[in-house]
Amino acid sequence: MSAPTVYDVAERSDVSIATVSRVYRNPGSVRAQTRERVLEAARELGYVPSGSARGLASRTTGVLGLCFPDYADPDAEADAEAEGDADDAVMLYSDQIIRGMERAARRHGYALLISASLEGGPESLVAKVAGRVDGFAVLAQTVPTEDLEVISNRLPIVMLAGPREIDHLDHVVVANADGERALARHLIEDHGLRRLAFVGGDADSPDAEARFSGFQEACREAGLPVPGAPDLRAGMMTRAEGARAAEALLDRPGDRPEAMLFANDQMAVGALRALDGRGVRVPEDIAVTGFDGIPLSRIVQPALTTVRQPMRQLGEQAVELLVQRLGDGDRAPVSLTLPVSVVRRASCGCGG
After folding, report:
1. What distance in Å separates the CA atoms of residue 89 and residue 91, rounded to the nearest whole number?
2. What is the 3-class SS of the chain, one letter each residue?
3. Which of 86, 174, 246, 322 could connect to 135 by a Cys-Cys bridge, CB 3.0–4.6 Å?
């Protein structure tokens, strides 16, 4: 019988994998009731969080690592607790990547070590992971490029999302610009909307910037004014940030936008709540769209039009590339672009 994994604990306690991770690395950040549920599930399963004991007598650990910023949305977690929702309903982008990596790692006989806290800086993050794994995946903007260059001399690394900053590393990204371009074209061509407002992320976020680039392309193709920057930026891209952005766009002088396009679903969900609070009807008065395709996008009212990216597949492909690299360190580096799809729902005026 195989040893229990973080995924088993997440399923048993009805929370996300990221929540289990936070229970062990930063327990004070998790609500007491949720923390006790996770720890009880771990005790029942006999789960041990550290895989560092493996490989002491060998040169391998049997562990793959994942480094990513902690994208926890406190507003989403508080709402889930208050409303009694299963944690899966507020599963975020990073949670889906973790799930994909964990499943693929298990198929290949590896455990997964997750390092998501940036406390102490990126050097601390690398130190936590690099010496305890056979290879690891890193989300863009998580670890400085110069540190990755050094580590990649002794460990396989796969870059997830963002531009391919290091040519000799394997790289997986989704078609962010294509997806946002197709979404904006849908609003323009199928719904006849012309006044579009784009709410982006931090200028250092490669995914958010790629999505804005796709928005610019759609505006250019339609003969609309092409903005040089998003109408607003939100650093954390949470529900609260989305609500604040929606309020700000409503209060901006001049004509209201006919559509608000958000760089991720979390912000779009926050905007839906803010607009409802102001008596603004969606989509009759303003259309709202997101990006990612997280589970929550299906169940909010109105259901959110979005761009679905293959988040679990992103994690699975990262593991496949790591395993291939471990088997053949001399093969040519691979760069994969995974396709995305526009999901048309009620928040833009579509029925599906």
Report:
1. 6
2. CCCCCHHHHHHHHCCCHHHHHHHHHCHHHCCHHHHHHHHHHHHHHCCCCCCCCCCCCCCCCCEEEEECCCCCCHHHHHHHHHHCCCHHHHCCHHHHHHHHHHHHHHHCCCEEEEECCCCCCHHHHHHHHHCCCCEEEEECCCCCHHHHHHHCCCCCEEEECCCCCCCCCEEEEECHHHHHHHHHHHHHHHHCCCCEEEEECCCCCHHHHHHHHHHHHHHHHCCCCCCCCCCEECCCCCHHHHHHHHHHHHHCCCCCCCEEEECCHHHHHHHHHHHHHCCCCCCCCCEEECCECCCHHHHCCCCCEEEECCHHHHHHHHHHHHHHHHHCCCCCCCEEEECCEEECCHHHCCCC
3. 322
The predicted-structure confidence for 276-304, as pLDDT tens digits, reads as follows 999 999 999 999 999 999 989 999 999 99
Domain count, the chain: 3
**Residues 222 and 277 placed together within one structural domain of the fold:** yes
CATH number at residue 22: 1.10.260.40
Statement to judge: residues 318 and 268 lie in one domain: no
Q: What is the separation, in whole angstroms, between the first and last Cα of the chain?
A: 44
Instruction: Report CA torsion sign: 57, 58, 63, 66.
Output: positive
* 315-327 pLDDT per residue, tens: 999 999 999 999 9
Look up the domain containing 65 and give its range. 60-174+310-338
What pLDDT, on a 0 to 100 scale, did the predictor assign at position 161? 84
Are 283 and 349 contacting, i.e. CB atoms less than 8 angstroms apart?
Answer: yes
Does one domain contain both 104 and 211?
no
Q: How far apart are CA 70 and CA 116, in angstroms?
A: 5
| In a shared domain, residues 170 and 188 | no
Measure CA 55 to chain center: 31
The answer to whether the beta carbons of residues 145 and 104 sit under 8 Å apart is no
